[in-house]
Amino acid sequence: MRRLRGVALCALLAAPAAMAADRDFEFGRYLAKYPGMYATATLSQDPRDRVFDAGGEEQDSALPAYGDGVEFEQSLLQAQLEWFFPWFESEQIPFVSSRLWTARARLGHARLDTQGAVLDEDAEPGLSAYADGITDIELAFGPVLYGSADWRNRHSVPLSVLLLLEALLPVGERDDGSPNNAGGNVRAFGAQLGLHARPADGWLIDAGARWRSFAGNEEPAFGGHEPAQRGDQWVLDATLARRLWRSLYASASGYHGRGDDNEYRNPRFAADEPAADPLMETFPAPGTYTDQGTELTELGLALHWFATPRLRLGAHYLLPLDGASGSFELPYLQQLQDCAGTVGCDPQPNGSAAVDGQGAARAYASERWMLSLAYSFGQGDFWFTPR
Amino acid sequence: MRPAIAAVAALCVASAAEAQAGIVFTPHLSEYSKLARGAYADHTLIVSSIEDQYNREGEKVPLSDPVIPPGESIDVGLLLARYLWIGNLFENTRVPFLRSHDQLFRVIGNFGWQQSSTGVADYTRQFGQSAGASGLGDLFVLAGFYGAEYRWGPLRGNDLWSFTYKWPIGDYDRESLLNIGTNYPSYIPQYAHHQEWFGRLFIDATAAWQFNGDNDEPSFGGLTPTEPADVWNLEANFAWKFTDRWFADLGITHRQSDGPNRYGEVTINFVDPIPPTAACNALGVPPAQCGLVDNFRLDPIEGVREDRGTRLTLVTTSLYYIFRSSSVVNLRLALPVSGRGGQIDMEYDVLVDAPGGGVVIPGGTQRATLNTVQEAGAVSASPYLEMRFVYLFWAP
After folding, report:
1. For the CA atoms of A154, A156, A160, A163, what is the dihedral angle to 10 degrees?
2. Complex prediction ipTM
3. Which of B40, B83, B111 to mutate to test the interface with A (most CBs of A within 10 A)?
């Protein structure tokens, strides 16, 4: 009985869970599991009231260009469905039939709020504070490269390697006048390679690398402060977990993500635009601008408890350590007011203004808590045994 | 009609948002067969890049025809989540008929994303409209029961009767070229039939009538109908079993509106005034006088317009792989073969901008042909790809 319970517990550890946005801190996330369906729900609360600016300095505002006190508070509920299954198992197709495959879908709902002096309806009509609702959907599919060949015999394998091909379907709610949106309006494609190992009794390690590339955004939000083209994203993550007592586990995770330079197309305003000379009007110079990319390093600490062999509960504390948000200088032009024809319509440089990149260009420095719940819909007879 | 100003007024780019309701009902292998009692989950991802559409003459034309250079498109992604329960609520009761015929209940939710390419988006902004949409779609709720079952030698089959209500809760923005929700309800009685021949050939066919409610808040300047026509559907799917695991099918779908869509609130117009250079030539204003006016405006003339109705014929082909009696993976290609999209003729008064309001130019009324948009008004002529995963939670 103890052995059976241990088997079930360890399999549930593998149910992927507990992530904020595209970050995953759950141990066992790269473990190949017995065929079946696994569901995970997470709830996180993030004040998003601080960011790392472009120079890596922590600022007391989500948008330093708009001054202190800007907050993009977010409550995020996510659900992940994950399947493990043999594929074409009776067809004897090389590589395909000899291993397990996995498919994942992750959906979410975000409640948002915006605080601070961000919106100036007089200067820029049509802006809105936030657009909350469902988030973008992440889909993933791929093989267990190593560790599942003998799954029918349910032999324990202390090492597994997963390869996932990913797609992001941008169905999330958004308003292109808002700086704070649940959806990103950008498709993404990528790949993730993950390793799970149990080097000693009660110890579990997960380590992975991820790359994603993004399609263009034809309607970047908040006057073009959101990237029209996101830079490629690179992520390294690792988790070390240890069984503390019976069905209670503790884990420590590290995350490091790096985004290449983002492009912004024809931004339409800035927080602190330069004043125009008398009888002149000023406006941003049309063009494509780039930031210096984004970066975030984060530490996660968590406790996990298996309430039943099928049900696991978790509590996470997440602490951003270092990072950098995207920002750029937007040059301004000026010309005679209401100029017609060619007289006086030769725009001249008029300084510049700093623009904080929106959406994915933010690297938040706020601490947050997260709760997770995972449930196995499988048969309970998982195919590996913990050592 | 003077061509230049007419072109100005006709800048309403047609969008061809995929017909959600049609996609939801396109049958697959054994879609209407008497299935085992249980709970089924079906997740379908549909993707398309819409580059062509059908006009009212039934011709396949580029999406942006005629006002934007070719090569523009609308990318579409639709994720359907379908949950089906089959059982018998009346099994131990005296309710006649139903106590001996299983019932089924189905809920279909969907998440959608649509985004215009740069050329279309830039054009759309001239009308003060957005060119993308994302979010939750309408919710479909279905209830039905299995009818007669029969077996004659190598042939066996069954009936299925159902009723679907489309609850228009989907995301909807009146100022958008594209929308995920439709903003009008639909009531869809449906008859379906399933046959199996020699255990090899599986036929699923259906006839459905989609009664559409009114849309009091049309979007994109009224180019979605205020009174969407009812739509009838005829669909058939022929699947061949190669092995216990492998199937392939060929299907045909025809859907057609019962008469025209009616558009009672067409107000689409430019946000900014029209520069004189764009209007003077079209109106025959001498250049010397043209310089005396700053700008022109168009003023839509009220009235109810009708298109010629819409229709679409699709052929589909799929490959299925079934494993462990509990899961199905399905890849399908759908190819439009003929169709007709919505277009209406719209009249605008031409006004010269003046202090305190515009002055109508006598005889300056312009007529433009406008492409109608979204589910009820536009018909895509581009193929779409469907990836589907069916999962039986608890196998019998």
Report:
1. 10
2. 0.76
3. B111
